[in-house]
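Good morning,

Attaching, inline, the C-alpha cells for the sequence recovery test we're adding to the shared suite. The designed sequence is right after.
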C-alpha cells in the first residue's frame, strides 16, 4: 500500500470517541456519513447514490472484517462491485419491453421469487460462514447478507419492493451490530429503518403520479 494511503488508513482506524465503553473509529464515522448520503440520493431517485455506495461499502468492508462479521464484510465487496451495475442501470437501463427504467412494482410471481431467493440464500450463506470463517454469529450474519443481495438487485432495477426488503434487513442488522458493539453503525441502521419507510412512501408517490389520470 502506498505510504499516503497507509497513513490515511491508520488515521481512519484511530478512535474518535468512546460510547458505552466501546471506541468508535473515524472509519466508522466516515462510512456512516457516506451511507446516509447514499440513502438520501436513493430516496430521491438520484443516480449519485451509487458511487457513494461503492466508497461506503469499501470502508465498511474494513470495519466489518475487524469485527469478524465476515458475511457482512463480503457483502460490502459485492455492494461496491454491483454499484457500477446499478449506476449504469439508473443512467441507461431499460425494461424488457424497451421502456425507460422507472419505479415499478413486482408481479405476484416476482414477489414469490423474492421470498424463495431469500429462503435459499440464507442457509447457503450461513453454512458457508460456519465452514470457512470463525464468526460467532453465522445465522444472524448470514440473514442480512443474503437478503441484502436480493434488495440490491431490486434497488438496481427500481422495484419499489426493495424498500420493504431493506426494512427487514435494517431491523435485523440493528440487533446484530448492537451485539458487536458497533454503536454508530447500530444508530445508522436504526435510522435506515425510518429511511426505508420514507423511501417506500416516496417511491409509491412517484408510482401513483406516473399512472395516467391519477390525482
Amino acid at each position: 500500500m502506498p505510504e499516503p494511503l497507509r497513513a490515511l488508513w491508520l488515521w481512519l482506524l484511530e478512535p474518535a470517541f468512546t460510547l458505552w465503553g466501546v471506541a468508535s473509529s473515524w472509519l466508522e464515522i466516515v462510512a456512516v456519513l457516506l451511507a446516509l448520503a447514499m440513502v438520501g440520493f436513493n430516496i430521491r431517485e438520484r443516480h449519485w447514490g451509487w458511487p457513494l455506495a461503492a466508497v461506503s461499502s469499501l470502508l465498511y468492508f474494513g470495519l466489518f472484517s475487524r469485527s469478524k462479521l465476515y458475511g457482512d464484510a463480503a457483502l460490502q465487496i459485492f455492494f461496491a462491485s454491483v454499484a457500477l451495475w446499478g449506476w449504469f442501470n439508473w443512467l441507461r437501463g431499460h425494461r424488457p419491453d424497451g421502456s425507460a427504467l422507472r419505479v415499478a412494482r413486482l408481479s405476484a410471481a416476482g414477489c414469490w421469487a423474492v421470498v424463495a431467493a431469500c429462503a435459499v440464500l440464507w442457509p447457503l450463506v450461513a453454512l458457508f460462514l460456519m465452514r470457512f470463517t470463525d464468526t460467532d454469529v453465522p445465522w444472524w450474519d448470514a440473514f442480512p447478507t443474503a437478503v441484502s443481495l436480493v434488495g440490491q438487485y431490486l434497488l438496481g432495477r427500481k422495484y419499489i419492493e426493495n424498500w420493504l426488503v431493506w426494512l427487514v434487513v435494517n431491523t435485523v442488522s440493528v440487533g446484530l451490530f448492537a451485539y458487536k458493539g458497533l454503536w454508530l453503525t447500530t444508530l445508522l441502521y436504526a435510522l435506515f429503518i425510518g429511511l426505508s419507510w420514507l423511501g417506500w412512501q416516496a417511491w409509491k408517490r412517484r408510482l401513483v403520479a406516473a399512472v395516467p389520470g391519477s390525482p
